């Protein structure tokens, strides 16, 4: 991962309490910034304040000045990100005055100085990760800086897409914005500890095969060996826990402390003198611990930045197709079901030297891929007929070869209906009638399947009912029905599963009922606005996110539907399927070519799992807007 075309003036990490937890300034880049302004003839007149023509500061602001400016912006815009839309409360010179939602992520900070109007720093890329706010200030030319200053003084509201002076046109001419987002993203990963290599699945052993497979397959039970994650060769210093000893500390102010030494060492190796070179944490850590490869290279080959040292050992190449299906199933004539597949192809190339790998993707016509993106080492040909060829020089370790999004081209793995109605205030009757793996034939195997009925506002006292298959357990706020257990996969046939029953809840006082369903204050709602993207970024599930929403801003509901307000009137399905893809996009491992030719077997595995897979209560309201149409 490279941040080409980008140089960073400074990085700040702020806590929710508007204090600076970490900062780093790059003097070399700052000299270039000042030289560019001096070449332009200075910053202009003193009377222009923070807008275009404002004098340039003698140096970058101190940490306490940045913290104060960020707190002031939060107060001025309503939240840390703001709305990005001009309202009656917007003031001239504020980001919301520009009237562009991108100002929620690319912001300006107004630094106050005693005895003067102060100055502005822009563009500051903002990301929230793990409760912290990551601010990255890239180097831009004075013309772009002045252009944004002019937008802060405009009297008209909004701008046309075709207008040359709008914010989008300014940012499109600044590749440093993309680089700054990449820097902020990887710093956020280090803060949260989300730096594990992508998963590559391989079979742990050969198939049992023979008579056992035929016998178990005939009754719909798989006896094949389960896939496991490919082992990752760790460098001398472990990178699995970047927060180090800080993880054992108690939370301070609602955020977990992070290891500043690890972050500081990464910045030194990844972006020397403020210019990002390689933002791959594993590469940077490997270079730091083992150094660059000392092996001689052929004179006609150049070692790429994403492969700092060469592999030695048994040669093979592994591919995994990992798909996640998102679904909202209503079982109603007036509402259409929603199905979407998001997937990625991961790779681990254990190949000596610097070979080129050619990989054909098949099933494009069937998959109808809507969106795709590739690793920066990949050269992708134009799709023709039903194929597309990828040529790449693979980096070390596990990496994501491509991301894609496509519709689900076969029937839902789990379909049917779910009904829930309240018999009394503390008792509800429910019914499931489901069909699993209808139309799925070998080699598709469902490893496990579980249905969860969440009741976030009530405490479950007991339940009655016997499912036709599987086992049932309960927690304080849910009932879990495990239809297919791990180790006893379902393959070769479909099954029907029913579960009628009742659920009883502990009584609740009227005071608790009234207080729990009150909407929150505007300040709490604003904080929820800030946390929304952070939850999605860190992989929060849909039901967790919905629970957070309803805990804050739900109005009271009627007695006849105390559980059935449309935000949580659903059952969540969790499953994992191996042996095929739901989109139809596949790889033929026999068609993988390596140049120069080496004897290296290509292994390929496929896995699909549930993401936000929801069965909505057919007796309740159908919130079609809750599940996004684009995942």
From TrEMBL:
Which residues are in the MHD domain? Answer: 314-578
Bias type Polar residues, positions = 85-94
Q: Which Gene3D superfamilies match?
A: Mu homology domain, subdomain B
Which Gene Ontology cellular component annotation is one that this UniProt entry carries? endomembrane system
User: Any keyword Membrane?
Assistant: yes
* Entry keyword annotation includes Transport: yes
Q: Name one GO biological process term.
A: protein transport
Subcellular location(s): the record lists: Endomembrane system
Give the way it sits in the membrane: Peripheral membrane protein
- UniProt-listed PROSITE patterns: CLAT_ADAPTOR_M_2, MHD
Record-stated family: Belongs to the adaptor complexes medium subunit family.
* Protein name (database record): MHD domain-containing protein
